[in-house]
Every structure is written in structure tokens, then in C-alpha cells.
Specification:
5-stranded parallel sheet, binds glyoxylic acid, 2 domains, 12 strands, elongated, 35% helix
């Protein structure tokens, strides 16, 4: 009798995705959605050939050393800073993520957060709910213009390009970007975007949007020095990863009005949020939901599951991040 390989689904997931995995694997699930400690994750990975992870599971060299049977980690996220990819390659473990399927949904959300931030939607809603709205006044919650303004995008991958297209084509914005590598001329033209230095972008943009992947080099891409370069009327939006912004420095800049406002979907040390950010009014805070629509989350979960199936059953991952020796 051929026994099915065993896999762990480390967090709760759509039942239909579990059902699909069960056609191919002996599945240990976690529908109670407990966030496992590193020790618990290592314990549950004993005898498992694959694991379905989310950003909350850290795959480190230390964990890999305890899990000799593990052959693939399939992340249900496009970002994979929870993976030590070089250590996975050395350990012969395949790493996969979920690119493309969340691009447009995440770009929509980046734009929504930009609009909410520039037009002070959270602050004004809190004012209304608190019963403070007694009369109209000419400058009440006057915000920053979005249409026709200058948008600066740091990190011009697929999601950055989606935001650029929305800005340029939908809102008549002038789009500047900086990226490790400038785009090819055709893509740049489709996005109607111009490559500039980070300093020029920070000094010129009315709205700065962060969409770059997290890495050690990207840590605190925006700190006190960068915030000081921005216009006092500018907004900052972070839909990338916590740690790309120095949240303490940002809270100080918002309180001092070094910049006008910020919109944050990701935080250093999330789900904890820097306490100072909770006390400044000019920030819109959302709990890491940029890709959160049911069709997109289902597509992400499906792709992570398909990576496990494709690799463990057919020997080939669909969206690999590394090429470990077989
Ligand atoms: C979400 O943050 C992702 O990386 O998919």
C-alpha cells in the first residue's frame, strides 16, 4: 500500500483547500488557528514532508535542523521574510510564495489607504462617531489633494506598478518611483512613471507609498532622516512590511507635523502596534489586510496548496523561491 506524504497546515484555512490537500496527503490541520511557538511548530513538523505556512510561521535554520523530513514550505503570502531562504536551500528544502494572484487586490488597497489618509477619513469618522459634529465649516477636515498630485512609489514590483497605473491613469497623478533596478522602458511607459533617487522622491512627492519587500537592507528605509526630507503636507503609506518604517520615528513625525499624515497596514513587531501610533490622530491604521478579499485569499491559499501538491506529487513547484538540490 502506498502511504500518502504527511503535511502540516500551520494555520486555519478555507475548508475546500484542506479538502483538496486531503486528496493527496495525510493532513494535520489547525482549524482552531493557534499561532504555534517555534518549539510547537518543530514538534508538529516531525515526519512532515511539507508545510503550508503564513507570515506568522518563522522557518529558520534552527527549525530546519530539527525537521529532517521536511522538503517544502509553501507560504500563503507573496512576502517571505518569515523564511530563511538560503538556510532552506542549504537544507534541501523548497520555498514557495504566492505571487501575482494578489497584485491587483493589494494595489486597490494601497490606493484606498492613500485616499483615506490624504482625505482624513478615519480622523473625521471618529469625530462624527464621538458626536462632535455640530455644524459645517469651510476648512473642517480639509485634507491633501490626490488627483493631479505627485505620487512617489518606493519598490516598483508588480504591486507598485499596479498602484502607479491607478495613480497615473485613474487620478492623473505624476508618478515617480525608486527601485533597486529601473523598469524597462516599455513597463515604465505603461505605468507613466519616472525613476528618481530616493532623496528626490522624498523631497518631491505629495504622497509616498512603500511597496518594497522586507530585507535587512530595507530595514528602516524610512526613519527620522527620511521623514525630515518629506514635505510637511505629505502623506506616507506603508503596505509593504513592518520594519521598513521606523514606527517610533514616524509617530514623532506625525505628532510634530513633520509630515501631514500616514496610512499603515503593517507594523514593526505586529500584531503589536507602537503605542505612540495609537495616540496620534493623523494616522489610519489597518491590521495587515491589503490582500484581504475572499476571492484573493482563496486564490492565495489555492496556490500555496497547489505548490505542495505539484512539488510533493509531481516533483515541480509552481512558484519556487529557490532551487534546492534534489
Ligand atoms: C502579505 O503581506 C503578503 O505578503 O502576501
Amino acid at each position: 500500500m502506498i502511504t500518502k506524504p504527511s503535511v502540516l497546515v500551520a494555520r486555519a484555512v478555507f475548508p475546500e483547500v484542506l479538502h483538496k490537500l486531503e486528496q493527496h496527503f495525510s493532513v494535520e490541520s489547525n482549524q482552531d488557528d493557534i499561532v504555534f511557538s517555534a518549539e510547537e511548530l518543530a514538534r508538529r513538523l516531525q515526519g512532515k514532508a511539507g508545510v503550508f505556512t503564513t507570515g506568522s510561521e518563522r522557518i529558520s535554520a534552527a527549525l530546519l535542523a530539527q525537521c529532517p523530513d521536511l522538503r517544502i514550505c509553501a507560504n500563503m503570502a507573496v512576502g517571505y521574510n518569515n523564511f530563511d531562504v538560503p538556510a532552506m536551500t542549504t537544507a534541501g528544502v523548497m520555498a514557495t510564495n504566492t505571487p501575482d494572484v494578489l497584485t491587483e487586490t493589494t494595489a486597490d488597497f494601497g490606493f484606498a489607504l492613500l485616499m483615506a489618509t490624504a482625505r482624513r477619513m478615519a480622523e473625521s469618522e471618529h469625530f462624527l462617531r464621538a458626536g462632535l459634529w455640530t455644524r459645517w465649516s469651510y476648512d473642517m477636515f480639509a485634507g491633501a489633494e490626490v488627483h493631479g498630485s505627485t505620487l512617489g512609489i518606493i519598490g516598483m514590483g508588480r504591486i507598485g506598478q499596479g498602484i502607479a497605473r491607478r495613480g497615473a491613469l485613474g487620478f492623473g497623478m505624476k508618478v515617480l518611483y525608486c527601485n533597486r533596478k529601473p523598469l524597462d522602458a516599455e513597463t515604465e511607459a505603461a505605468c507613466q512613471a519616472r525613476h528618481v533617487s530616493k532623496t528626490e522622491l522624498l523631497q518631491t512627492a505629495d504622497h509616498v507609498m512603500l511597496v518594497l519587500p522586507y530585507s535587512a537592507e530595507a530595514h528602516h528605509t524610512i526613519g527620522a532622516a527620511e521623514l525630515a526630507l518629506m514635505k510637511p503636507t505629505a502623506t506616507l503609506v506603508n503596505i509593504a512590511r513592518g520594519g521598513i518604517v521606523d514606527d517610533a520615528a514616524l509617530a514623532a513625525a506625525l505628532r510634530n507635523r513633520t509630515i501631514a499624515a500616514a496610512g499603515l497596514d503593517v507594523f514593526e513587531g505586529e500584531p503589536a502596534v507602537h503605542p505612540d501610533l495609537l495616540t496620534v490622530p493623523n494616522v489610519v491604521l489597518t491590521p495587515h489586510i491589503a490582500s484581504a478579499t475572499i476571492p484573493t485569499r482563496l486564490a492565495m491559499a489555492d496556490l500555496a496548496a497547489d505548490n505542495l501538491i505539484s512539488f510533493l506529487v509531481h516533483g515541480k513547484a509552481l512558484t519556487p523561491l529557490n532551487a534546492p538540490a534534489p
